[in-house]
Every structure is written in C-alpha cells, then in structure tokens.
Amino acid sequence: MTATEEPNRCRIVLIAPRIDDPAKLKSLISAAAEGGDVASLILPAYGDGETAFQHRAETLVPVAQAHGIAVMIEDDTRIAGRVGADGIHFEGRKNGLEELIEKFQGRMMIGTGGAKNRDDALELGEARPDYMFFGRFGYDNTPSPHPRNLSLGGWWAEMIELPCIVMAGNEIASVEAVAATGAEFVALSSAIFAEGEDPAAQIAAANVLLHAKAARFEAGE
User: Fold this and answer.
1) pLDDT tens-digit readout, 18-74
2) Is residue 94 within 8 Å of 121, Cβ to Cβ?
3) Regarding beta strands 40-43 and 70-74, do their DSSP bridges make them parallel or antiparallel, or are they unpaired?
C-alpha cells in the first residue's frame, strides 16, 4: 500500500514478539506484512544484549521497510542508526525523552510510552514526541485491551493533538475497542503471532474490522 492509499482511520502497529529464532521471526514478520495495511513495527529489546538485539534488528528492518512499514527500535539509538531504522521508541522519564528529541528529531521519529496515568502522559507529551504509546510490551495476554489503556487512549485522543497508539488484546476483535477510543493506531502482537495463527490472515482480519468499524479521520488530523 502506497502512502497515497493509506486509510484515514485507525491503523495497525505491530509489536515484534519475543522469539529467539531469527529465521522464524523473519518469517512471521514477512507473513504479517503480506496481510495488508500495517503502519509501523516496533522492535522491543526484551532484555537482549546489544549484539543479539542488533542481529534481530538487522534481520527484520529490511523485511518491514520493503513493505512500506516504518520500524521503531526500542531505546538504542546506535542500533537504530546502524540498521537504518526509521525511529526510536523511548520508555523513560521526560528529561531523557527531551534529550533524545533534541539530538535526533528531524533525523528519526521519536515515540514514547510508559505513562501509567494522565499526569505521566502529559509530562511526556510536553516534550512533543511523534506519538504516545499506551500499554506494555508482552502484556497483551487477555482477549480485551487493558481498561486503563483504553481510558488513557480515549482521553488522549479527545484532548491532545499528538497521535497515540493503544495496545489491543490477544484477540483480533479487540481492535474494535481501541478504534472506538479515537486512537490513531492500534498495537497488535500476540493476536497476530500466537502459535498456530496465520499472521497474514490475522492482519487481513484486523483490517477488515477496522475498515468496517473505525471512525474516519478528517484530513489533517
């Protein structure tokens, strides 16, 4: 899907799963990318050392970018630069985010997460990142999105101009609840990559639901 064909409604952000086998992970991401519209892919570090994390990023970034999917690397600017990623996803305090934005915004996208309440989110938002993420990597282990993430996403989407991403649950149908908040993006991981699932079919199904249920945004929103 080209930029001119991007849908004007809530879109999918993939969170790469915690899988140690690079070949298997590459196959899963490639299959998901074939399933339909995906806006971006976030690569969490999952506690890996620098060498292992960089190898994973080197494996996945070209696959995603070949399908027009922007790739965000969690926290490590050196790895992001080495592998030609599109941006950094930062989980931390406002001062760290401000420093990151000062150094890299303009060259890379800078997104953030980790807010547990409205005050946290507003403090991080003052740094003007490219997006706010509500949720935690690896915690999409229930069918529905976490109520706190839905609440924060709905409040943010209504009150703040910066785009937000809300973590969905481990069932595809949960994208509807996220889209209903007005969030610009819905994050999916276990719903796509669970053992036995077809990532392409799951992405296609999620896009069908979003196309049918998600509100349309006005131009410029």
Assistant:
1) 998 989 999 999 999 999 999 999 999 998 899 999 999 999 999 999 999 999 999
2) no
3) parallel
Element (H, E) at 60: helix 50-66
Tokens of 54: 């960089």
Pick the CATH number of 3-213 from 3.20.20.20, 3.40.109.10, 3.20.20.70, 3.30.559.30: 3.20.20.70
DSSP 172: G
Bridge partner residues of 14 (DSSP): 41, 188
Would the pTM count as exceeding 0.85?
Answer: yes
Nearest to 182 by CA among 165, 203, 206, 204: 165
Q: In sequence order, which residues have a C-beta less than 8 Å from that of residue 107 and are 6 or more positions away?
A: none
Domain segments of the chain: what residues?
3-213
Residue 73 φ then ψ, to 5°: -100, 130
The number of helices, as runs of H, and strands, as runs of E, in the chain is 9, 8
